[in-house]
Amino acid sequence: MKKVVIILLVLVAAIVGGVVYLASGANEFIRAQIETQGTKYLATPVSVASVDLSFSEGRLTIADIDVENPEGFSDEDAMSLTGITLDLAGSTEEPYRIQEVTVDGPEILYELDSSGQGNLIVLKNNLDANLPEGGNEQPADPSSPSPKLIVDQVTVSNARLVLNFENLDTGEFEIDKKTYEVTLPTFNAGSIGQPDGLPADQVGAAIVKQMLDNAIKQAKAEAKKVVADKAREKIEEEKDKLLEKGKDKLKDLFN
């Protein structure tokens, strides 16, 4: 089952590195780098079906990105994207410009374990822990420094969020249905790297963190709504019980 995500622009670094430095064989290079760097930063396997770089159209398309759930969660993918498109501006010197990053129709799974820990929160924590502190880590190959980038706009549309808390103990709230699906409103992350550009890995991290933040925020809001609705139901049930008890005690007044 392919699920979501948002994500993997933790790779704008590798992606743009391929655009800038490789004239041939870029597709496989970029695909391999997305998998390698994505797995490294998120600490869970990341797979990519294919990459298509078109210099003539100034466009890079990444197809079928899957991010596995972190350890301790189900075998479902945490995130799946059928495609990410980067519209590349024609800049030939740093900071290189990406006009827009478009993510359409990602599938995102927000899953809670028995303790209430969320899988997307674990991924975000992994990202924070594995990125170099302050973004100061030097590349393994000094001859290929991370290029500076500016992304004008990031747009995520038609995202499908699946909220699953089958494993969560909800206590006295006996919720019959513990899996919910909602379509998220279009999310715009705005520009990143203005005005002088940021190293590509930092740009990628900024995009991923904003996307994860948005998904987590929406998932928590939906979960609170579900629990609040159930709480209201329980209050109504208790109120009806109290009314019935009151009627029994005051039956002489009602007869």
Look at the structure and give the mean pLDDT.
75
SS-based class: alpha+beta
Order of helices and strands: HHEEEEEHEEEEEEHH
Low-pLDDT residue spans: 1-23, 135-144, 246-255
Number of strands: 11
Using the CA coordinates, give the radius of gyration: 23 Å
Helix content: 25-40%
Major sheet characteristics: 11 strands, mixed
The coarse overall form would be: elongated
Q: Report how far apart the termini are.
A: 62 Å
What count of helical segments does DSSP give? 5
Descriptive report:
With 255 residues, this protein is α+β, with helices and mostly antiparallel strands. 36% of the residues lie in helices and 26% in strands. It has five helices and eleven strands. The radius of gyration is 23 Å and the shape is elongated.
Brief summary:
The protein has helices spanning 12-21, 26-42, 119-130, 200-249, 251-254, and strands at 46-54, 59-68, 77-88, 96-104, 107-111, 148-151, 154-157, 160-164, 179-183, 187-188, 198-199.
Secondary-structure blueprint:
Layout: H1 12-21, H2 26-42, E1 46-54, E2 59-68, E3 77-88, E4 96-104, E5 107-111, H3 119-130, E6 148-151, E7 154-157, E8 160-164, E9 179-183, E10 187-188, E11 198-199, H4 200-249, H5 251-254
Parallel strand pairs: 4-6, 4-7, 5-8
Antiparallel strand pairs: 1-2, 2-3, 3-4, 3-5, 6-11, 7-10, 8-9
Helix pairs in contact: 1-2, 1-4, 3-4
